[in-house]
Predict the structure.
Amino acid sequence: MTLTVTPSGMACGAEVRGLDLSQPVSAELAAEIRNIWLAHQVICFPEQDLSDDDLERFTLAFGPFGDDPFIAPIPGRKHIIAVKRAADETSPIFAESWHSDWSFQEKPPQGTCLYGITIPPEGGDTLFTNQYKALAEMPADLRRRIEGKKAIHSAKNAYSPKGMYGAGDKGRSMDIRASDEAEAAYAHPFIRTHPETGRKSLFGCAGYIVGVEGMDQQEAWDLVTEVYRWQTRPEFQYRHRWQKGMLLMWDNRCTLHMATGGYAGHDRLLHRTTIGTA
Ligand SMILES: [Fe+2]
């Protein structure tokens, strides 16, 4: 089987054609896909026709399932969540701010898979930003200020009862379960070495990052927001346009991503799994 890889031409991202993911993925093919993924950070497979079983099987070719808190899985599945929005929904767009999935966990997921089932004719692009590139091009004085420091990550601003998706979040079709468990925090270095590529990358951003170890809150927030402005600059971004039947997989260890709107009046449905860290 010959895979065709077409880079996006933007800061990361590539399209991969030449395979049918409704069929089992051999260890050899998984290794080939993994190499393409590590090189491009975000890869998409257009024109697939996948069942939930296929999505689960594909995910497990790359690692164990991740632990997905705060969002209930779809009925009958433990590891698939529905990212969905009804045509008439008026609540804020889900995940319309930069983040690395579940970065507040002790072992955040290495990757995320997202499969397009109902895709609006316009809008709903997913934006990514390349955090190898953001670090490599970061001004030396800003880099010096985060070198060796640990950022404190927490889901509290999103998923605690007082958070964005907490008690005040009404009329949403996604099955989000806010919880006091979101108050927990975990520190990760701002700069991490990717365990597979050996390249240094920024990890996570303001949002799930809520502070810096050893710094008072105001000083920490000033630093975190300065880093945020740098790491989300347009020149580090890739804009992903969706099609029905497209599977996307991204590397949470070296990218950030965010959802966008622009499809009011249209239903949207994608199924998502996370690739955990073994
Ligand atoms: Fe996400």
